[in-house]
Amino acid sequence: MPRKKYDCLKCPGYCCSYPVIEVKDRDAARIARHFGLSLKQAEKKYFKSAHGYKRVMRRKKDEHFGKICQFFDTEARRCTIYEARPSTCRIYPGEGHCGYYDFLSFERAGQEDETYISTTYHIEN
Ligand code: SF4
Ligand code: SF4
């Protein structure tokens, strides 16, 4: 495996602010189990159908990105269900580097401010 060129612990969690965090059937079952809820209870509380997807994460307000996954701790800037997180989150960002982190590192170095948070980055597809 290539060495990771990003550090999520130094990042404000940009990827958790994506409007679509898909939750597949197995992910929903795992998250329900994590909270000791039935699948039906979890469906209502944590997920919704949106953007053409059967099930995505509900979101909440975030001071930096506007909205963010409801399971994101907006003070500590980290996932609160790391062990139970969906497969989408497990595989992201994929190939050893993260575009947002590259951009953030560049900005932080340029501004000589390790705490700088960029909210304007957009991934071009
Ligand atoms: S945007 Fe990149 S560096 Fe930041 S939390 Fe997500 S994967 Fe980690
Ligand atoms: S489940 Fe965790 S890793 Fe996935 S988007 Fe939500 S806060 Fe981020």
Written description of the protein model:
With 125 residues, the chain is of the alpha+beta class. The chain has a domain at 16-94. Helix content is 29%, strand content 17%. The strands form three sheets. A two-stranded antiparallel sheet has the order 1-2. Strands 3-4 form a two-stranded antiparallel ribbon. A hairpin with a 3-residue loop joins strand 3 (59-62) and strand 4. Helix 1 (25-34) crosses helix 2 (39-46). The radius of gyration is 15 Å and the shape is elongated. The site of one iron/sulfur cluster has 11 residues, from loops.
Topology at a glance:
Layout: H1 25-34, H2 39-46, E1 47-50, E2 53-57, E3 59-62, E4 66-69, E5 72-73, E6 78-79, H3 87-91, H4 99-111
Antiparallel strand pairs: 1-2, 3-4, 5-6
The chain binds iron/sulfur cluster (2 copies).
One iron/sulfur cluster (SF4) binds at residues 16, 21, 57, 69, 71-72, 79, 81, 85-86, 89.
Please supply descriptive tags for the structure shown above.
two-stranded antiparallel sheet; binds iron/sulfur cluster; 125 residues; alpha+beta
Mean pLDDT: 93
Distance between the terminal alpha carbons, to the nearest Å?
24 Å
Number of strands: 6
Q: Give the overall form.
A: elongated
Lateral arrangement of strands in the main beta sheet: 1-2
* Ligand types: iron/sulfur cluster
Number of helices: 4
The assembly state of the depicted protein chains is single chain
Gyration radius (Cα, Å) is 15 Å
Q: How helical, in percent, are the residues?
A: 25-40%
Question: What percentage of amino acids are in beta strands?
Answer: 15-25%
Largest sheet: 2 strands, antiparallel
Look at the helices and sheets and give the structural class: alpha+beta
Note the run of SSEs as H and E: HHEEEEEEHH
Low-pLDDT segments: none
